[in-house]
Specification:
This protein has one helix and four strands, in the order ββββα. The protein is an alpha+beta fold. It has two domains: 56 residues, no CATH class; 58 residues. Bound molecules: zinc ion.
Length: 116
C-alpha cells in the first residue's frame, strides 16, 4: 500500500484528492487509483479517485454560498425540531388518554362482574 501524506501540490504521477470524511487534501501515487486508503488525518477509509480532484482554496463566493446553506440548514433543523416537540407532546397526551380509558375499562368490567 502506498503511503498517504497530506500535501497541497500535485507531483507528476500522483493523485490529489480530498478525504470523503474530513475533506483533508491527500496525495497518493497514481498506482493507488481506485483503492481504498485510510485518511492520514481522520483515519477513516476513503476511496482514491481514478483522476485528480482539484483541491483549490474556497473562493469568497463559495464561502458565502456555504454560509447561506448552513443558515438554511439551521432554520430547517429548528423547524423539524419544533415539529418533533409538538408531536411528542401530542403523543404524550394520547398516551395519557389511553391510560385513562384503560382504567375506566377495568372499572366497568369490575362492575359487570359484580352484577352478573
Ligand atoms: Zn479524513
Amino acid at each position: 500500500m502506498n503511503p498517504v501524506r497530506p500535501q497541497t501540490k500535485s507531483e507528476h504521477g500522483d493523485l490529489l484528492f480530498k478525504c470523503q470524511h474530513c475533506a483533508s487534501p491527500l496525495i497518493v501515487d497514481a498506482a493507488a487509483a481506485g483503492m481504498t486508503l485510510n485518511c492520514q488525518r481522520c483515519g477513516k477509509p476513503t476511496v482514491v479517485p481514478m483522476m485528480s480532484v482539484p483541491v483549490s482554496p474556497t473562493s469568497p463566493q463559495e464561502l458565502t454560498d456555504l454560509q447561506r446553506k448552513l443558515k438554511e440548514n439551521e432554520s430547517q433543523r429548528t423547524e423539524v425540531t419544533g415539529y418533533i416537540n409538538q408531536l411528542s407532546i401530542q403523543l404524550h397526551r394520547w398516551k395519557l388518554r389511553l391510560q385513562t380509558l384503560n382504567e375506566r375499562k377495568d372499572e366497568l368490567e369490575e362492575e359487570v362482574r359484580k352484577n352478573s
